[in-house]
Amino acid sequence: MDLGIAGRWAVIGAASRGLGKGCASALAKEGVNLVLNARGVEALEATADQLRAENPRIVVHTVAGDIGTPEVRADILAACPQVDILVNNNGGPPPGDFRDWTRDDWVSAVDANMITPIELIKATVDDMASRGYGRVINITSGAVKAPIDVLGLSNGARSGLTGFIAGLARQPRLAGNNVTINNLLPGPFDTERLHKTLEGAAQASGQDVEAIRDQRRQGIPAQRFGSADEFGAFCAFLCSVHAGYMTGQNILLDGGSYPGTF
């Protein structure tokens, strides 16, 4: 299927590895030019070089730094001739017990996982609407739908973003001008963050990390963890010309883990 987005420009956060890289790779294969951001320069440049080699017809720019800072966001937007596709993605806050979290912990989580994507949306969607095309994908978490107790900081911040998007996506000035805004809710994907979470659970329980990993895998109806490539493919479809009638949705990708009907 031709997704109809060759030649467009996309901004992708946390793109050097994991789900962000999966999205970047899928869009690159469709001929989308990229502006990639991540904090680590070495990993970011390695990813950019890989994508350029695999997709010589596209342009790939990189902007290293904390996307949570206004200066880095300004550099990212300046590096992109026009933002047709925005993939909001940022590292999640650490797990823990809410009794140990300070006000600064909460402010940091909300700033990174709610306010930062909102600022990028604010800076781009009106221009998208004026051109008659735009796709915003917010990578949130399956914990928005099925909260995980030790991820309270993430649950709270990402749920705030979800509520904001529910209203924004339905504005006729955006949806009526072919600008869609959707949230992708990843469940257990085989990423560095999952590994760290499993290691933390193993330390807390005194069990071997491989035993914890196997227990988690067996609890997934699909009997496996997701891959970054399949996540990226789904993201690319939502960015395509074929997904213009879907907006304001929270799409759960979790191998069937969530047991509810709705």
Describe the structure.
This protein is α/β, with parallel strands linked by helices. The protein has two domains: 9-187 and 227-252, 3-Layer(aba) Sandwich (Rossmann fold), CATH 3.40.50; 190-225, no CATH class. It contains nine helices and seven strands; from the N terminus they run βαβαβαβαβααβαααβ. A seven-stranded parallel sheet has the order 3-2-1-4-5-6-7, sandwiched between helices. The relative contact order is 0.16. The mean pLDDT is 96. It comes from Modicisalibacter xianhensis. Pfam families: adh_short_C2.
- Please state roughly what percent of the residues sit in beta strands, choosing from under 5%, 5-15%, 15-25%, 25-35%, 35-45% or over 45%: 5-15%
Strand order of the largest sheet: 3-2-1-4-5-6-7
Individual helix count: 9
- List the helices and strands in order: EHEHEHEHEHHEHHHE
Q: Give a count of the beta strands, DSSP E runs of length 2 or more.
A: 7
Overall number of structural domains: 2
Amino-to-carboxy terminus distance: 29 Å
User: Biggest β-sheet: count, sense, barrel?
Assistant: 7 strands, parallel
CATH class of the largest domain: Alpha Beta
CATH topology of the largest domain: Rossmann fold
Question: What portion of residues is helical?
Answer: 40-55%
Evaluate the radius of gyration.
18 Å
| The CATH fourth-level homologous superfamily of the largest domain | NAD(P)-binding Rossmann-like Domain
Q: Helices and strands: which structural class?
A: alpha/beta
Uncertain spans: none
* Average pLDDT score: 96
In the CATH hierarchy, what is the architecture of the largest domain at level 2? 3-Layer(aba) Sandwich
Shape: globular
